[in-house]
Design brief:
It contains no helices and 11 strands. Helices cover about 0% and strands about 45% of the residues.
């Protein structure tokens, strides 16, 4: 059974940094079973939006986080990470990790392309 569990969300001041973790179980990150791993976020009263993804196609970032956020993975720990630097109030959201067995370059930024989701972790950026 595939499970994704996010952690690391908290409150931080503008300009601060956070690292989110997504622990995977039921599959290994380095297997061919799951071809794409991604981060999405959802702010109050907004649609869920793409943040970053990693797959055999490459690594992708949403424009507003490029240069500030980095996604990486530790295959030994079976964990996906999102390092977030220079945080802004508009980064406030619930952050989700997601995984899917089938992806293309046309769909990698779409939430409906992902089959498995974590429960989310809250990130609040406020002074």
């Amino acid at each position: 059974q595939v499970q994704l569990v996010e952690s690391g969300g908290t409150s931080v001041k503008p300009g601060g940094s956070l690292r989110l973790s997504c622990a995977a179980s039921g599959f290994t990150l380095d297997s061919l079973f799951m071809v794409a791993l991604a981060w999405f976020r959802q702010a109050p009263r907004k649609e869920r939006e793409f943040v970053a993804a990693t797959s055999g196609l490459g690594v992708y970032y949403e424009d507003s986080v490029t240069g500030r956020f980095t996604t990486s993975r530790d295959d030994a720990a079976n964990t996906l990470y999102l390092q977030m630097n220079s945080l802004k109030p508009e980064d406030t959201a619930v952050y989700y990790c997601a995984a899917t067995r089938l992806i293309s370059e046309a769909t990698i930024r779409r939430a409906d392309a992902y089959e498995y989701w974590g429960q989310g972790t809250q990130v609040t950026v406020s002074s």
